[in-house]
Amino acid sequence: MDGISNKRRMLAGAVLASGGYAFSKPLLAAPGALLTRPIPSSGERLPVVGLGSWITFNVGDDPAARAHCTEVVRAFFAGGGRLIDSSPMYGSAQAVIGHALAQLKHPPGLFAADKVWIGSGARGPAQVDASRALWGVPRFDLLQVHNLLAWEAHLRTLQGMKAAGRLRYVGITTSEGRRHDELVRIMQTQPLDFIQVSYNVLDREVERRILPLARERKIAVIVNRPFRQGELTQALAGQALPGWAAEIGCSSWAQVLLKFIASHPDVTCAIPATSKPAHALDNMLAARGPLPDTALRRRIVADVERRT
Amino acid sequence: MSEWWTYTLSDLLMFSTATYFRLFELQNLALWPIQVLALAVGSALLACLWHGGAKAGRTAAVLLALAWLHVAWRYFAQRYATIHTGAPYFAIGFALQSVLLFWLACRPQGARLIRPIGSLGKLALGIALLALIGYPMLAPLGGRPWTQYELFALAPDPTVAFTLAALLLWRAHWTLWIVPLLWCFISSATLMELHSAQAWVLLVLALPALGARWLAATRAHS
Description:
The structure holds two protein chains of two kinds. By secondary structure, chain A is an alpha/beta fold. Chain A has helices at residues 3-18, 63-78, 93-103, 124-135, 151-163, 180-189, 210-217, 231-236, 244-247, 253-262, 277-285, 294-307, and strands spanning 36-38, 45-47, 83-85, 111-116, 142-145, 169-173, 194-198, 220-224, 269-270. In chain A, helix 4 (124-135) links the parallel strand 4 and strand 5. In chain A, helix 1 (3-18) runs antiparallel to helix 11, helix 2 runs parallel beside helix 11 (277-285) and helix 3 runs parallel beside helix 4 (124-135). The longest helix of chain A has 16 residues, at 3-18. Chain B has one domain (16-216). In chain B, helix 4 runs antiparallel to helix 5 and helix 7 (156-170) runs antiparallel to helix 8. Chain B starts with 8 loop residues before the first helix and ends with a helix. The A-B interface holds A 54-56, 58-62, 65, 89-93, 119, 147-150, 175, 178-179, 275 and B 1, 3, 6-7, 11, 14-16, 19, 22-23, 26, 79, 82-85.
């Protein structure tokens, strides 16, 4: 393992051992500046790694689990993170995020991304209000139509909110490669700031049509399922990192997987979900240091395909 | 909503295996010492099944109806609903089964239990014993903390399993089998999706019960 990787690991361990993190100055600034990408519609820059909440933050009203999730969010901000993503579909995840943000006294820099997920267009605004109350934020930065559900009506609502200054960005999501034809039609015809799609080392279908179209239409891209719901990191666990991992400053497979995604020029941000503070810190380390070039990206694909 | 077809079970299960089983631990802590009462009710039910007859059958139907109602309220509506958007519907299903069991208790001779003799009786008593005593042991046997035990009248699976035994000895109408069998399917599918080793337990109990009920019905008609 190279010196940089050792340094990162020690730093992450020290941060976790301290049990506290400073929000104004990310503690992990040492290994390199935070990698950010601009949102094409505004130029505002976002770190290339965010935080998802699917499954991991749906812990109900369990006080111990909620405290644990708070530590995940604390570690995420300590690593320089900004974008947290959730949905009304994720059970108690929104309330758990709200609890964490309140415990951490609403860290500055939060980019609050949520979704609207309801079959009735008329009930969309009420759901957005309920979500906002659960998060405990004055407004969302980004609202997305979840999995294209009743998207015509919801997009009208969200665009109206944006025009009224009650929302900064509008998006639409899909996952696991579903309904890409329809997503393409929406991207071609609707004014969108963001799309959210599934993309990882093994699931690269979006590279063919969706990502080039996002570049053409100046739409930011959030990537979900970067680890295939943990399947990739579990399959690679215990396997030694190849020598090329040091070239891009990676000390874990999770960082390799995230850097592969972040290195695609049309991706704005990947949103891994985790229930472990140490993993949240580890993920944020992927937002620092060099990214793989085209040749190394091919090598990463080949290596991961061979090992999984 | 035409979009629903795009969802699979894995999309709708928005919680981890640890969170799912932790619910039982939280519930057990919150409800203590009601477990003592639940075990007493379960033992009384077992005695009813052993004794047989109309009076024991009515008592069993009332006790089981209360158990289903308790699970609907305390587990599905108050606990599972915190992580599963479908839990209120499960609560309604369990409340409906409770109504059906009360209805059974009110019918003259409707809840008469047959004596648990022969293979059908042994099967029914075996299922009831496993539901009452075996189910709480699944947590430590599966490598989970024993505090996550699933107890009759507090958790759905052992309550449904016990009910299967009573349904057999009541020779109950198929209407009373619908909700328990649906739950067997839902619970097993959920646990399979969560990669839990106990995913097959409820199905393993339900299939012979269903087979025995079907055989009994076939013989009655021949």
